[in-house]
């Protein structure tokens, strides 16, 4: 019997890229999947999953809208009898230079923070009662390795203050959420993702994108593409995480390193990668992360389980 | 001897507690000060700052409201023509956790993220053009030690802190990115990861009647204010992008800036 048979998973932002890979893999593992996106393409993703024999509910709506989130969660629970897994994958990225005009800054704050933070909070709050009824569950927030640098801080570009702030902010939901929900056997973790071969990243290399000078009409050149992680590998990591049982961890997923959960982190550094991390940024801005040369993996000591 | 003579400082949340003490410390160092707070007492606070021999303006303002932020910053520019120092101190706390009903969480979100994170964003974005045009400046954002704990303590303040911690982690993200973006403009951006300090907020947690033992265990605001003055006093070549731990039980001091690790050349 498939591992997730009888379980229901919600994946937000599932029309493309990582969200789609997560939804397909969870369906392959036997879960019924409820997928949503602001892009109508999510319906076609749902149809292709249904064609492989899985239970699917697709929703096209803006995740920042409370009523839409409430309706989707209620529909999912009604259709499949409960909710066991929530993957908070939907996110927006915008270039937000600090020198932008005031009016753009105001608009950017709402556009980025409402989706990347407020919607994650809303969806998590909405599913928690369903998971409590089921006796357990998993919430996985999709973050960025900006907030969990492997070997140096601050790989984000200077024009990403709001995106960066939004992903740092997720640490609060992951950490405190894990503690509050642990008595109900609900785990909350985050994947701090490095560059992965998704539409969001490819678009940066296409004409009009921020890194267009490095790419072309088809996006990034082969040598850069080769350094991106494969969404299928990240989906495997997600399944490993669901089976693992840890909670309250920021899990680093870095290009050029083994894609693996690694040992459970010591309880006092579970949101960080290095005990000495103080939040200092990179002092020289260096090359973008995908040209980093891999460095030997040095894990922190394995300690007691999280939330001990 | 006033160390910051002639500079203009803006302090948010300055009607009470630490914010007011930052403003007084800056005034004693010779700064003209612009203070704001949601509390009407801020007008009287400004009057008292004037008695320290500097110019001062007080605005009643909600830092989460863009129009209020513009009014404070534009008013400061009209009066003083520049802003050299910003201390984004205004902050609020509410308890709540992941089991809360959505209605409550959304109310908490508006208050906590609005004041603690959007307020920092708005004031930063409003003064950054002023500072870049002037060729430099200092921004200090006030976060919490939940996002940068002393060794051996877990991050986060506990399950009841989630939206508060969300707002303060967000502040850290802004600090780090601004430091990087503004380094070429001689604008230094740092944050304080504050532990328990004798402040209006902390006294409120103890129903404004803390025990002597509680108070004795807290950090003294004078020491924290002095740290801010020292940090600003480092000048335009001082540290930036540092999330400075200000922890109970540890020396309240600026540690030497660690040397940047060499970045290996890509293969």
Description:
The complex is a heterodimer of chains A (308) and B (267). Chain A has helices at 17-28, 42-51, 66-80, 102-134, 161-181, 199-204, 222-225, 231-244, and strands at 8-12, 32-37, 56-60, 85-88, 137-144, 186-193, 250-253. Chain A is an alpha/beta fold and 308 residues long. In chain A, strands 3-2-1-4-5-6-7 form a seven-stranded parallel β-sheet, with helices on both faces. In chain A, α1 (17-28) packs across α8, α3 packs parallel to α4 (102-134) and α4 runs parallel beside α5 (161-181). Residues 275-308 of chain A have low confidence and may be disordered. Chain B has one domain (8-246): NAD(P)-binding Rossmann-like Domain (Rossmann fold). Chain B has a seven-stranded parallel β-sheet with strand order 3-2-1-4-5-6-7, with helices on both faces. The interface between A and B is large, with 71 and 71 residues.
Short description:
The complex is a heterodimer of chains A (308) and B (267). Chain A has 308 residues and is an alpha/beta fold.
Here the CATH topology of the largest domain in chain A equals Rossmann fold
Biggest sheet architecture of chain B: 7 strands, parallel
Widest beta sheet: strand line-up of chain A: 3-2-1-4-5-6-7
The third-level CATH topology of chain B is Rossmann fold
- Identify low-pLDDT runs of chain B: 261-267
Give the overall shape of chain A, derived from the CA principal axes.
globular
Approximate strand percentage of chain A: 5-15%
- The tally of domains of chain A stands at 2
CATH class term of chain B: Alpha Beta
| SS element count, helices of chain B | 8
Number of strands of chain B: 7
One letter per element, helices H and strands E, the order of chain A comes to: EHEHEHEHEHEHHHE
- Mean pLDDT score of chain B, rounded? 90
Terminal CA distance of chain A reads 32 Å
SSE diagram, text form:
The complex is a heterodimer of chains A (308) and B (267).
Chain A (H helix, E strand, L loop, with lengths): L7 E5 L4 H12 L3 E6 L4 H10 L4 E5 L5 H15 L4 E4 L13 H33 L2 E8 L16 H21 L4 E8 L5 H6 L17 H4 L5 H14 L5 E4 L55
Parallel strand pairs in A: 1-2, 1-4, 2-3, 4-5, 5-6, 6-7
Chain B lengths: L7 E5 L4 H12 L3 E6 L4 H9 L5 E5 L5 H15 L4 E4 L13 H33 L2 E8 L17 H21 L4 E8 L5 H6 L6 H6 L3 H13 L9 E4 L21
Parallel strand pairs in B: 1-2, 1-4, 2-3, 4-5, 5-6, 6-7
Helix pairs in contact in B: 1-8, 3-4, 4-5
């Amino acid at each position: 019997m498939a591992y997730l048979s009888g379980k229901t998973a919600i994946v937000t932002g599932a029309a493309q890229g990582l969200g789609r890979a997560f939804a397909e893999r969870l369906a392959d593992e036997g879960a019924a999947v409820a997928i949503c996106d602001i892009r109508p393409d999510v319906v076609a993703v749902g149809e292709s999953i249904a064609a492989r024999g899985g239970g699917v509910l697709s929703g096209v709506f803006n995740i920042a809208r409370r009523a839409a989130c409430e309706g989707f969660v209620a529909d999912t629970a009604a259709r499949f009898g409960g909710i066991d897994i929530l993957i908070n994958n939907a996110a927006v990225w915008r270039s937000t230079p600090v020198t932008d005009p005031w009016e753009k800054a105001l608009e950017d704050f709402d556009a980025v923070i409402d989706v990347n933070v407020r919607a994650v909070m809303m969806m998590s709050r909405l599913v928690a009662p369903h998971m409590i009824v089921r006796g357990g569950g998993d919430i996985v927030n999709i973050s960025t390795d900006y907030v969990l640098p492997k070997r140096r801080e601050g790989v984000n570009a200077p024009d990403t203050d709001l995106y960066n702030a939004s992903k740092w902010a997720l640490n609060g939901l992951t950490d405190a959420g894990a503690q509050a929900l642990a008595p109900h056997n609900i785990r909350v973790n985050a994947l701090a993702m490095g560059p992965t071969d998704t539409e969001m990243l490819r678009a940066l290399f296409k004409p009009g994108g921020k890194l267009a000078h490095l790419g072309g009409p088809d996006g990034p050149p082969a040598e850069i593409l080769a350094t991106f992680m494969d969404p299928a590998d990240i989906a495997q990591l997600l399944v490993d995480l669901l089976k693992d049982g840890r909670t309250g961890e920021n899990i680093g997923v870095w290009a050029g390193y083994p894609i693996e959960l690694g040992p459970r982190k010591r309880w006092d550094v579970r949101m960080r990668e290095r005990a000495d991390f103080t939040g200092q940024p990179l002092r020289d801005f260096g090359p973008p992360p995908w040209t980093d040369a891999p460095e030997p993996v040095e894990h922190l000591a394995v300690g007691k389980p999280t939330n001990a | 001897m006033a160390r910051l003579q002639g500079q203009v400082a803006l302090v948010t949340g300055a009607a009470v507690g630490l914010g007011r003490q930052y403003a007084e410390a800056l005034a004693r160092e010779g700064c003209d000060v612009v203070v704001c707070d949601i509390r009407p007492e801020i007008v009287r606070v400004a009057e008292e700052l004037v008695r320290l021999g500097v110019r001062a303006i007080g605005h009643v303002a909600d830092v989460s409201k863009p129009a209020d932020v513009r009014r404070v910053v534009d008013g400061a520019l009209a009066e003083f023509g520049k802003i050299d120092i910003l201390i984004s101190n205004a902050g609020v706390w509410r308890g709540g956790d992941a089991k809360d009903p959505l209605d409550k969480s959304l109310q908490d979100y508006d208050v906590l993220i609005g004041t603690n994170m959007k307020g920092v964003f708005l004031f930063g974005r409003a003064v950054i053009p002023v500072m870049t045009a002037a060729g430099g400046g200092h921004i200090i954002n006030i976060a919490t030690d939940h996002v940068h704990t002393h060794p051996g303590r877990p991050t986060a303040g506990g399950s009841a802190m989630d939206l508060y911690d969300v707002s303060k982690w967000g502040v850290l993200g802004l600090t780090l990115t601004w430091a990087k973006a503004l380094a070429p403009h001689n604008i230094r951006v740092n944050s304080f990861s504050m532990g328990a300090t004798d402040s209006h907020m902390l006294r409120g947690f103890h129903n404004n009647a803390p025990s002597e033992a509680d108070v004795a265990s807290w950090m003294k605001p004078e020491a924290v204010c002095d740290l801010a003055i020292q940090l600003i006093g480092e000048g335009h070549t001082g540290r930036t992008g540092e999330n400075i731990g200000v922890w109970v039980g540890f020396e309240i001091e600026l540690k030497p800036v660690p040397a940047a690790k060499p970045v290996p050349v890509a293969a």
